[in-house]
Amino acid sequence: MKRRLKYGLLLAGALAVLAGDIAIAAADGVLTIGRREDGTTMDPIKSAQNVDFWVFSNMYDVLVRVDKTGTKLEPGLAESWTVSDDQLTYTFTLRDAKFSDGSPITAEDAAWNLLRIRDHKESLWGATYSVIKDAVAKDAKTLVVTLNQPTAPFLSTLAMPGISILSKKATEADEAGVSDHPVSSGAFVMKEWRRGDTVVLEKNPNFWEADRVSLDGVQWISVPDDNTRVLKLQAGELDCGIFMPFSRIAELKQDPNLNVLLDASTREDHLLINHEHGALAKKEVRQALDLAIDEQAIVDTVTFGVGTVANSYIPAGALYYYKDNLKRPYDPAKAKEMLAAAGASDLTLQYNVEAGNEVDEQIAVLIQQQVAPAGITVNIQKIDPAAGWDELVAGNYDVSVNYWTNDILDPDQKTTFVLGHDSNLNYMTRYKNDAVKELVEKARVEFDPAKREQMYIDLQKMAKEDVNWIDLYYSPYRNACRKNIEGFYQNPLGRFWLEDTKKM
Q1: Whether residue 140 is found in the same domain as residue 238
Q2: The pairing of beta strand 479-482 with beta strand 399-405
Q3: Residue 96, in any domain of the structure
Q4: Are residues 400 and 317 in the same domain?
Q5: Does 287 share its domain with 407?
Q6: Which of 103, 134, 168 lies at the terminal end of a domain, its last residue?
Q7: Cα dist from 53 to 95, 346, 447, whole Å
Q8: Does residue 13 carry a pLDDT above 70?
Q9: Residue-range definition of the domain harbouring residue 46
Q10: Would the pLDDT of 6 be above 90?
Q11: Residue 425 reports pLDDT greater than 70
């Protein structure tokens, strides 16, 4: 998923630091990746952000993984599992594996992590894992998990980077130190984190698949300005860059030194709406706003045709996506009429956008122009990226573009986060609908595929009717690497397979 992330970094500072790392970027076996934002934590339960999950998925391992195609589950630290007939008891057999400090990964570690993400006061995922009644180690390699009720997406939730397996002993000894010297269960271990700048990883020799890992290390480098990130990739100062601007893709494809990677994704970009701000509390006003926005023009102008118009919070290609969900046509005249009827003529909106984000800035200007004929005035407020997320949390906005990439195969996680009245304020929208919330809970415990699919179709219809947010577009991941990089891949759920990446 995505949130507007914190990185206390001025562009000048980023360039200065990065200049000192050019030699490292060229080092044999060390992969340098330019990304827009820095991370916020190395403690998986305390994050719900792509920028952290990218690192987690290669620094920690999980009990159950999602495969490269992003379509099925496969063994991780659990080499096998069984499920009781009543769907309440899951028994996992752990493989022989070690943490980066050489200590064994045991069923006790796994049980402790499951209870920690459920109960910890700083966990962002307590609601998701509240279905767990108990988790116990039957022996060193056997984990038994009992649920309060049958829950269809449970196995899928075990593949989420937020439930990465940490060392119980090391974390209990120094929980505050997890972000400074974490003990890893995955392919890489953190050597250094220069906050606001670079996360430095090195190969974990104790990883159970260490023989599979070619790279000696990985550096995630924050380069917040899109154009600067492209230029540094072209100059060879970065091995790979992610979030390439749509406007530069054609140019990058012509560069003989680069490979452009448009991997299939579950990414959905949308316009967040603060339901607690004035007239936006009215469904009719939000519907009018949707009518006043030309999503196809955004796809054509901003994504250069790479994206497709979105019509649901569940992205195209994901489980239970409803392709026939409503797409409101661009009709500013009708929007103006609806606003007048709702007593919201001359609507004025504060539109927060992160400074330096080329695509989001372009969308903001385009929407500003599109809604004007409907009598809507949009005041664009450029926000320092370091403060962007905090402003959304505080509710200091009317509308703001954001995006979400699915973290698990099942739609329950995203649905709960954006529609289910969760602790995240329904992803900062403050949206509330008790009938929707009830259906979210029912869908979670329905095992009949046909019935469950219909529930999610109904949820997509209800969300569109209420305009929980405005769906804008779906798009592939937009990454690029130097030609000497092989196997750099991002699966549809956003996981980078760096254990398979090679620097030639």
Answers
A1: no
A2: unpaired
A3: yes
A4: yes
A5: yes
A6: 168
A7: 23, 42, 29
A8: no
A9: 11-60+186-264+477-503
A10: no
A11: yes
**238 part of a folded domain:** yes
- Nearest-CA neighbor of 388 among 402, 406, 405, 367? 402
The Cα 14–Cα 238 span in angstroms is 13
Q: What is the pLDDT of residue 18?
A: 39
**Number of domains present in the structure of the chain:** 3
Could you report how far apart the first and last alpha carbons of the chain are, in Å?
Answer: 32
Specify the range with the lowest mean pLDDT, choosing from 121-130, 226-235, 342-351, 384-393.
384-393
pTM for the full model?
Answer: 0.84
In a domain, 178, yes or no: no
Chain centroid to CA 473: how far? 16
Q: Would the pLDDT of 246 be above 80? A: yes
Q: Mean pLDDT check: name the lowest of 224-228, 478-482, 500-504.
A: 224-228
98 vs 100: CA distance, rounded Å? 7
Q: Characterise 494 by phi-psi region: left (phi > 0), alpha (psi -120 to 50), beta (else).
A: left
CA distance 208 to 163: 18
- Tokens for 419, please give them: 């529609």
The per-residue pLDDT for 27 is 56
Cα–Cα dist 182/188, whole Å: 11
Joined tokens for residue 122: 């700083």
Among 335, 432, 351, which Cα is nearest to 398's?
Answer: 351
Residue 491 predicted with pLDDT over 90: yes
Residue 380 DSSP class: E
Over residues 446-463, the pLDDT tens digits come to: 999 999 999 999 999 999
Whether 1 shows a pLDDT value over 80: the answer reads no
Residue type, 112: W
Sign of the torsion angle spanned by Cα atoms 146, 147, 153, 159 = negative
Q: 307 with 452, same domain?
A: yes
Pair 481, 261: CB distance under 8 Å: yes
Q: Which two tokens stand for residue 94?
A: 């752990």
- 209 belongs to a structural domain: yes
Q: Which among 472, 499, 474, 473 is positioned nearest to 486, based on CA atoms?
A: 499
Query: Which residue, 142, 168, 194, sits at the end of a domain?
Result: 168
* Phi and psi, residue 14, nearest 5°: -60, -45
Task: Give the CATH number, domain containing residue 130.
Answer: 3.90.76.10
Span 66-90, average pLDDT: 96
Q: How far is CA 285 from CA 177, 265, 275, 376, in A?
A: 47, 31, 10, 11
Distance CA 396, CA 401 (A): 14
